[in-house]
Design brief:
This protein is α/β, with parallel strands linked by helices. It contains 11 helices and 12 strands. Strand 7, helix 5 (134-145) and strand 8 (150-155) form a beta-alpha-beta unit. It starts with 7 loop residues before the first strand and ends with a helix.
């Protein structure tokens, strides 16, 4: 790689951000396609987010990804929201067009593309989604676009799940018929009825975390996705049961690939990106 006056700068805003895998696979993609660009992690304190976004214009940074904890607040500081961001109310990608900042959400595409490696046809499926935070909002948006039959949305507080349903009603006409909010304690009651189980919470990140439900009642016919980037207890149980299962890496790669395409206008070399992470 040769850095010169024509090198475009991309990056990721997060706090913390040192652990991010995005610089590795985005740089691999730039190198493979011969694009004169670098991708840099920027650790941005939440108190400095507005200034950091404004700096994109000043420094002519071509685009950034946005990760935890900035995905929701960042939409207050850009010039334009894409259609999906208006619904999801969170963004993970910004494109800088001559100082005009457009926010996108590619998390939903990343999740759906990753899930389709296991389940090519999602229409008519019944899905349990655990958690109602920013990632869950993006995932549910994708599932609704794919015409799933039913979503059981399990969350610690039912009010947050109900708020999501009310907000999505404006964009998905019969969303209240598709999504049923349930408490975490009631997961086992509905588990046998679902085809796909998705954990969007941080439960499982630490080995000492209590299980979300009794993992012994998983069925071989079910598909299990945990968006954490490792083999959690949930995924280990799914593996032992013979389920199809997936961690968070496919979602990470595919959301990054879509961001790459938004920025560059070129088809992302997904297999190159995967290989750079040893996937």
């Amino acid at each position: 790689m040769i850095l010169d006056g024509q090198t475009k700068v991309y990056g990721i805003f997060g706090y913390p951000v040192k652990h991010s895998k995005s610089p590795t696979f985005q740089t691999a993609a730039f190198l493979y396609l011969g694009i004169n660009a670098v991708y840099v992690p920027f650790e941005v304190n939440p108190d400095d987010l507005e200034k950091a976004v404004e700096s994109l214009k000043v420094l002519k940074i071509a685009g950034v990804n946005i990760t935890i904890p900035h995905k929701e607040n960042v939409i207050n500081y850009v010039n334009e929201l894409s259609e999906e961001v208006k619904v999801i109310k969170a963004a993970n990608t910004i494109k800088n067009v001559d100082g005009y900042l457009i926010a996108y959400n590619t998390d939903w595409i990343g999740f759906i593309e990753g899930l389709k490696e296991l389940e090519p046809n999602l229409e008519g499926k019944k899905v349990l989604v655990i958690g109602a935070g920013g990632s869950s909002r993006a995932i549910i948006y994708g599932l609704l676009k794919e015409n799933v039959d039913k979503i059981y949305l399990a969350n610690r507080t039912l009010q947050r799940a109900e708020k999501l349903i009310q907000e999505y009603k404006e964009y998905f006409r019969i969303v209240d018929k598709i999504i049923t909010p349930i408490s975490l304690q009631d997961i086992e009651t509905f588990l046998s009825d679902v085809d796909i189980i998705v954990n969007t919470t941080s439960v499982g990140l630490n080995n000492e975390d209590f299980p979300l439900f009794d993992y012994n009642i998983l069925k071989e016919s079910q598909t299990v996705v945990d968006i954490i980037y490792k083999e959690t207890k949930l995924l280990k149980a799914a593996k032992e049961k013979g389920c199809k299962y997936q961690n968070g890496f496919p979602m990470l790669i595919y959301q990054g690939a879509k961001s790459f395409e938004i920025w560059t206008g070129q088809k992302a070399p997904v297999e190159v990106m995967k290989k750079s992470l040893g996937l």
